[in-house]
Amino acid sequence: MAKVLCVLFDDPKDGFPTSYARDDLPRIDSYPGGQTTPTPQGIDFTPGQLLGSVSGELGLRSFLESRGHTLVVTSDKDGADSVFDRELPDADIVISQPFWPAYLTPERIAVAKRLKLAVTAGIGSDHVDLDAAIAHGITVAEVTYSNSISVAEHVVMMILSQVRNYLPAHRTVLEGGWEVADCVARAYDLEGMHVGSVAAGRIGLAVARRLAPFGVTLHYTDRHRLPADVEAELGLVFHPTVEDMLPHCDVVTVNVPLHPETEGLFDDELIAGMKRGTYLINTARARICDEGAVQRALESGQLAGYAGDVWYPQPAPADHPWRTMPHHGMTPHISGATLSAQARYAAGTREILESWLDGTPIRDEYLIVRGGALAGTGAHSYSAGATAAKR
Ligand code: NDP
């Protein structure tokens, strides 16, 4: 019987919800390109409920316990003597979400002698040291596509809110003011701007599709070029490197995984090569951007704005400089954790567990590491080498 250790974010401050803003979710059976949404044998939750917090338990308890497995759920994941560290040595399976990541460092993997499966309930497994997982024969799986559209919508929202100076204008209303000039002195239209995406995978392409009707010119860079008909449909301009693309862009959106090729990519030098007044949107991973370089560029005006939802570490400390730097539109890591997304990644986590426990293959598109090597989606999107989990 397996011990499943699940790290989830805390319940709402006012307690676990007893009612919700809406009564249902739209039914979505497949993603762009045709991949089906998760197909577990069953679910024990109501889609639209809060699943990613401790009391939500990703809807897994009755499923696991009815099969005789043990489920331990905690939000206590960092610091000396955390519940996660105490429970890890005899855990067979670890589950966590990128929004509240249980960092599976080489040190932790070394003590997790029974660990065989690390599931990311969501997308982005850089909180798992993939090299250590490879070395220890741990399978790493994530629920590919489950929240890609959720993030793409968040990116579009953040681009518009930055370019149009929405957040300061909203603050004016909250503070009882009506200072129109103050609100519009930094407000522009997106129409006519050049928007570049670093990577055109699931999220990058979905962002491009959503932005095309705004009358912008779309640019992208990626390791592999999109099919010619997709480029033609969206008027996408391909650049072989990020350095080639940036000088053309008024807005840049980062949609690339964090791995050795992308860690620290946006440093002082790269940002200096952007147009003055570019808006930089990063919902991919914080460490793709150098923390100090972003702050300096906002202070100097080289960047007109920075927005995103990814930080390092997570949760970000109260004195994290990105909380107070000028012209930012940061949120906590939430773009891929809408109730809509939670229903999909909870179902996908259940599907992965069913496959694992029944000894049937996990969908190839969910695999990041298997059998001591990058596999499935991991083999396509990540690169081997010193990977990310630092704590
Ligand atoms: P995909 O795997 O669909 O796309 C990633 C793309 O990045 C691929 O096209 C890949 O290229 C490309 N790529 C990888 N390395 C490089 C590189 N060095 N230079 C240029 N392109 C590169 O991933 P998604 O679009 O679904 O997600 C992207 C990232 O977004 C995730 O890895 C995750 O970190 C983040 N994310 C954030 C969420 C949030 O809540 N904020 C939620 C979900 C994801 P190719 O395949 O052609 O080799």
From TrEMBL:
Query: Origin, by domain of life?
Result: Bacteria
Task: Point out the annotated site residues (description: Important for catalytic activity).
Answer: 285, 333
Reaction catalysis annotation: formate + NAD(+) = CO2 + NADH
Which E.C. number(s) belong to this protein? 1.17.1.9
**This protein's GO CC annotations:** cytoplasm
Which residues are in the D-isomer specific 2-hydroxyacid dehydrogenase NAD-binding domain?
156-335
Q: Which family does it belong to?
A: Belongs to the D-isomer specific 2-hydroxyacid dehydrogenase family. FDH subfamily.
Q: How does it assemble?
A: Homodimer.
Q: What is this protein called?
A: Formate dehydrogenase
What organism, scientifically named, is this protein from? Streptomyces kasugaensis
